[in-house]
Specification:
2 domains; 6-stranded mixed sheet; 42 strands
């Protein structure tokens, strides 16, 4: 609830009494938030989230026919792997880890005939069970002369046991590291409830050329990743090198290690590697892509007070967008509807830029966008050694509006700070190529973003379509409505989201603008996609003048807090500088970070 008061004739300040979300972590590029807790941690007498299994709201459809997508098995080049998401519980602890609820350790069950376990699975107890591990077998039809893809370990090393751990737990757990034979690597641990070494037939090690260096991923249990104290930490694993051309494959396993040795160069486990020459063989074809979009396309809700809505690129060009060239600023050129007269090649050298129409009425109309024309622009990407497909859904906004600061309980409009012409944001769907199941969604947030796994998503009306909330004026995407603060300690830039009647169903109007794995003849890239320069002008105004306008309306502690805020915020907030297009972003060929 807000109460608005007037301090000066031109300055209104909203006093915030209640808001439903609180920020729990902050970096300059990534934010996370959750609802305010209604008490202490969940009592152990109650059912923990991990004791329930997450399923998507709707059944997975039957995908159109294709080569290898959704077939259940992927050939990594002499090693066949499949995802297993059925588990047998081995051991659990009920303290430590996220929200101090502990973690549970599983081994895969119902492993298909001929396949072998590569490692156990674990996740924190604060979420429903939702995960998988890969199991593998040798491809008997392969002509590979390098020998068996899988071999038994020759021994085990006890990494850790819980005998001295004085917390709530299911008896004692023991974590073992397989000792691989020469020329092979371990890609997962074995967990038991006995101090006796596991059977050598329990797990398989992988031939070295089918493995690749990995790094720690999400924190599962043990000492907090940010803790300076020594102790055991448990993390997921992911390939160190990730991108559309990278070959590293996630196994779905975890690693136990001392918190003081968390460097990726010291890890005792590896990830898998896809040595298959034709990575496209397990990627979806065009008809399968269309089916995936129909099944999973997100809904984006805009704030009820949003002024600057999205539009299609063609609408932006057709309604007066202008192309400027350095040294010829007095002779801007109208842009063709498909961007065919935009300069291609080169780099973001400042030689060209786009801007709004010169006529004030036309400029005002274009700034507000046209949600009826808005379109999602899809980039189809092979990820994690082509075991997943990323569908990056890019949304264009003609204008990014001004920011609002929160200084403790007071909201302060920041004038021009935060404004710029042209704004590209996106959501990325990560889908398993084994079965077509939605694994997670990436929410872009200014110059960064965050991955959210399926169990933590909000879905639209019983469908498998995730819901996203676009922040007021800034268009950052969040998985829940409420306030996320870009700053810290009650002082920062507001990112407000809420549900309204203004909504965009990204599956209603979309274009596949790039799918390199399908070849250029299947998907033709629009001309504007290869425009490398800025989608808005760079306007350097006196930051001190803009800051002074705000400071003059404040006094005492509020002025001091605002000055601290200015020092905390990233440079992107200040000045008007249009962004580059989707293809110029690091995530186009790399992973989302």
């Amino acid at each position: 609830m807000f109460t608005r008061i007037c301090l000066l004739p031109s300055l209104y300040i909203d006093i915030l009494f209640v808001y439903p979300y609180i920020q729990t972590s902050f970096t300059s590029h990534q934010f996370s938030f959750e609802k305010l807790p209604m008490g202490n941690c969940l009592p152990q007498s109650k059912v923990l989230p991990i004791n329930t299994t997450f399923k998507l709201p709707s059944p997975i459809p039957t995908w159109p026919p294709g080569e290898g997508f959704g077939s259940g098995t992927i050939d990594l080049g002499g090693l066949l792997v499949t995802q297993v998401s059925s588990f047998t519980k081995v051991w659990a602890t009920y303290e430590g880890g996220p929200r101090d609820l502990g973690a549970t350790f599983f081994e895969p069950s119902s492993i298909p005939d001929g396949f072998f376990m590569l490692g156990c699975y674990s996740q924190p107890n604060n979420n429903p069970l939702f995960g998988w591990v890969l199991v593998g077998k040798d491809d008997d039809t392969s002509s590979d002369s390098q020998g068996q893809a899988l071999k038994q370990p020759i021994d085990y090393t006890l990494v850790w046991n819980s005998e001295s751990l004085e917390i709530k737990k299911d008896g004692d757990g023991y974590v073992w590291l397989p000792t691989p034979p020469d020329g092979y690597k371990a890609v997962g641990h074995v967990v038991t409830t006995s101090p006796e070494k596991p059977s050598l037939d329990k797990i398989r090690c992988v031939r070295s050329d089918l493995t690749e260096q990995c790094e720690t991923d999400e924190w599962i249990w043990g000492e907090d990743a940010e803790s300076s104290s020594d102790g055991i930490t448990v993390h997921g694993l992911r390939p160190s090198n990730r991108g559309t051309q990278a070959l590293g494959v996630c196994v779905g396993t975890f690693i136990f290690q001392d918190s003081g040795t968390s460097s990726s160069t010291t890890l005792s486990l590896e990830c898998l590697k896809n040595n298959k020459l034709n990575l496209s063989s397990c990627m979806p074809n065009l008809s399968q892509i269309e089916a995936l979009v129909k099944a999973y396309s997100p809904w984006i809700y805009f704030h009820p007070k949003e002024t600057y809505l999205p539009s299609s690129v063609n609408w932006f060009f057709s309604n007066g967008a202008l192309l400027y060239k350095q040294g010829e600023e007095s002779k801007p050129v109208s842009v063709e509807p498909n961007g065919s007269n935009l300069p291609h090649g080169g780099s973001n050298d400042g030689l060209y830029w786009l801007d709004l129409p010169i006529d004030e009425n036309a400029k005002d109309a274009v700034m507000k966008g046209e949600i009826g024309s808005s379109e999602a622009y899809l980039h189809i990407k092979p990820m994690l050694g082509a075991t997943f497909t990323d569908i990056a859904m890019w949304i264009f906004y003609p204008f990014n509006g001004p920011s609002t600061a929160k200084i403790e309980l007071i909201n302060v409009p920041l004038g021009r700070i935060g404004e710029h012409v042209g704004d590209w944001e996106h959501l990325t769907l990560r889908i398993s190529n084994f079965n077509g199941v939605l694994n997670s969604v990436y929410f872009s947030q200014h110059s960064g973003g965050t991955w959210v796994e399926a169990p933590l998503l909000e879905f639209h009306s019983g469908t498998n379509k995730a819901v996203a909330y676009s922040s007021l004026h800034g268009h950052a995407n969040y998985p829940k409505p409420g306030l996320v603060l870009q700053g810290g300690l009650g002082v920062g830039i507001r990112n407000d989201t809420a549900k309204s009647k203004m909504v965009m169903d990204t599956g209603t109007r979309y274009s596949v603008v790039a799918a390199e794995n399908l070849g250029g003849k299947v998907v033709e890239e629009p001309p504007w996609l290869n425009y490398a320069r800025k989608w808005g002008p760079k306007i350097t105004y006196e930051l001190g003048v803009e800051v002074e306008k705000v400071e003059n309306s404040l006094n005492g502690q509020l002025k001091s807090a605002f000055e601290s805020l200015v020092n905390l915020l990233p440079d992107e907030v200040f000045g008007e500088d249009g962004p580059t297009g989707p293809k110029m972003k690091n995530s186009w060929y790399g992973d989302e970070v």
